[in-house]
Amino acid sequence: MYSIKAVAQATGLTVETLRAWERRYGIVAPNRDASGRRVYRPEDVLRLRRLREATERGHSIGRLAGLSDDGLAALLNESTDRRTRATTNAFVERILESAQRFRSAECEQSLTLAIAMLPPPQLVSDVLQPLLREVGERWHRGEFAISQERLVSTIVRRHVGLMLDTYDRNARRAPIVFATLPGERHELGLLASAMMCASRGFKTHYLGPDLPPAEIARFAREVNAAAVALSVVLQDRAADAPAQLGELVSHLPAETAVWLGGSAARDLPREQLPARCVVLADGAELEQRLEMLPA
Ligand code: B12
After folding, report:
1. How many domains is the chain partitioned into structurally?
2. C-alpha span between 256 and 268 (Å, rounded)
């Protein structure tokens, strides 16, 4: 449960706007605590954040107020699609073209422009993910050399890392530790997720790939982490994951959550995972979990 001040901080709306929207449009219905102050649920925070985003895109709050949570999410997706698909595709194309010609400075220029123009979630889902996937496909088809794949991965890693550092300077919310388990060297998705958490004000501790579970747990204890976020990309690592996660949780305080993301996380044998390990299917689920962390 969150106070109106915490909600204002988490959504970027002012306390006055929150009160006015509630009074005029009944957009959320917070409960009251013993002394009559408003208390909000994590779902309210997510709804309010979406409402802010939609109003910033020119939709009237009067019309938005009548939409369900799903309707609101669909509206945001739809308008994002129409407005920016052409722009994000152009960024991906330009970076690929520069990599094709081994022009790292041009790659970097296009990426920094994309970073300046797009909000972090969109940068990740509409530019970085399709870009890296296509680089992988071209490498598979023999159209890209290993050095071209490295050129793009290295630039992405450096810039997403810089964004993470910048957001992290002002991070005041609960600490989260990011890592991958032994043998998993894919880290760009994890780094992008850490950057998104930092952009929401969470203190991120990015340990990077390929760490023994006991080491991750030790670090998490030291920094009092509210959650440990892990990425699982390689399918053949999935078989070892239950035992590794068992070891990790055995060294963690009971209240520390364990989140699993990445393209192979959904294939993990869930019945074999320790109870507190949750697989996060997408960015929306990550956002929901973030809002449920202790303030
Ligand atoms: C770049 C890359 C590499 C780089 C990694 C560089 C780095 N520092 O990360 C290098 C060269 C090291 C590499 C090596 C290998 N790779 Co590789 N690689 C890729 C590639 C091209 C892109 C991956 C990527 O960064 N995607 C971009 C990110 C942003 O997307 P993402 O990982 O999906 O993450 C998103 C979500 O999943 C989510 N997410 C991810 N993690 C987390 C964590 C949390 C907590 C949350 C909430 C969300 C979340 O957020 C992200 C944004 O939405 C893919 C191709 C592809 N189709 O994906 C292959 C791919 C992943 N690689 C593959 C393979 C097989 C390998 C190698 C075995 C190749 C080899 N023969 O050596 C090695 C294994 C190395 C190892 N031991 O881990 C296969 C995996 C197949 C499978 N499913 O098992 C793929 C799919 C290529 C293919 N089509 O075969 N690879």
Report:
1. 3
2. 20
Instruction: Mark whether 179 and 254 lie in a shared domain.
Output: yes
103 lies in a domain?
yes
Three-class HEC string of 34-103 = CCCCEEECHHHHHHHHHHHHHHHCCCCHHHHCCCCHHHHHHHHHHHHHHHHHHHHHHHHHHHHHHHHCCC
Global pTM reads 0.80
Atom of ligand 1 nearest to the CA of 187: 9
Determine the residue of 131, 144, 186 to mutate for testing ligand 1's pocket, defined as the one with the most ligand atoms within 8 A of the Cβ atom.
186
The CATH number of residue 152's host domain is: 1.10.1240.10
Summarize pLDDT for 100-148 with one digit per residue, the tens. 999 999 999 999 999 988 888 889 988 999 999 999 999 999 999 999 9
